Amino acid sequence: MEALIQAGARLGTELWREFWYILPYLVLGVLFEATIRTLRWHVKIRHALTRFGVWAIPASALLGVMSPLCACATLPLVISLLLAGLPLAPAMALLVASPLMSPASYTMLSAMLGIGWANTVVVCAILLGLTAGYVTLWLRPRGFSEDEIFRKALPAGNFHDPDYPVEELRCDCGKQLSHRVDRCTHNKALVFLAKLWEGSLKIGRFALIGLVIEVVVSSVVPNAWITTLLQGSGPWPVLALTFATIPLHLPQVTAASMLFGFFLPDPGQVIPLARGPGIAMLVGGPVTALPVMGVFLSMFRKRVLALYLVVCVTGTLVLAFGYAALPF
């Protein structure tokens, strides 16, 4: 019993030490996202997507990396945009790019893995979003037009309506603290504080999950084996990490926290993460969230899910091997 208590104390101490190091960057990222959500910048840009014409695909990819939404929140948004007249190609670009980057993700990646890795993931997110958009556009006459992709016709109405008949798409944002504060006070400062609290809970939870997984795994699996995989060269580490993360719900902040914890450098030290395995973990993990796959299967025809997975998995492998092969 005493040994178990000592082991728990060691895990708790290690977890606290790692969380305390990332806390300032977590706060900064939450502040960025709370500001964007309070001013509703992402909503204003989103509403303009249906009017962007030929620029809708690159605009969607760029919006995806700036949006504070994760994969699970982006999919209902994408479906609502499709029903509002947005073509599938830019919708797919948004759906692929959004889980890979957000203001909070960028801040925390910069702090934990270095600004070089943060910028690399931004570029990968844009490239993967553009690829998804233009591949979907090319396939549009081949069974991917907007009137052929849904399993059944969705009822008209507002997803924010608590009586909307499709439960998987019904938004419960009206129950959020920030929306209740806005309805009661219309005070932007109070709304900002409420969104700051919501973001702290959401982003902090994802970061804590990553650190807990890393601390527990490090106590069970020899750390040298894991870091060898993350620092490895050749095809095996990339393939192993890419396919191992497909069934996991691994948001960007969680993936970054796990990687940071495995290396835990001194302040200012760069984590020796290999290029290929790093992309496989930071891109392949977040883009294939399991809850999103479930909604895909219930809402869309199987070929749409197949297209999404092929683009995401193949794109991750191409980006990982391509980045690893760069001479600089």
Q: Which keywords apply here?
A:
single chain, 328 residues, mainly alpha, 15 helices, 71% helix, globular
Would you kindly provide a brief summary of this structure?
By secondary structure, this protein is mainly alpha-helical. The protein has 15 helices and no strands.
The largest β sheet comes out as: none
Give the number of helices: 15
Summarize model confidence as the mean pLDDT: 77
The tally of strands reads 0
What is the number of domains?
A: 1
Rg on CA atoms, Å:
20 Å
Estimate the strand proportion: under 5%
**Which consecutive residue ranges, at least 5 long each, have pLDDT under 50?**
none
Cα distance, first to last residue?
53 Å
Structural class of the helices, strands and pairings? Answer: mainly alpha
Shape: globular
How do the SSEs run, as a string of H and E? Answer: HHHHHHHHHHHHHHH
How helical, in percent, are the residues? over 70%
Give an overview in words.
This protein has one domain (12-325). It is 71% helix and 0% strand. The protein has 15 helices and no strands. The protein has helices at 2-39, 41-48, 56-66, 71-83, 88-97, 103-112, 115-139, 177-185, 188-220, 223-230, 235-244, 252-263, 275-287, 290-299, 302-325. The longest helix is centred in the first third of the chain and has 38 residues, at 2-39. It is globular, with a radius of gyration of 20 Å. The protein starts with a helix and ends with a helix. The mean pLDDT is 77.
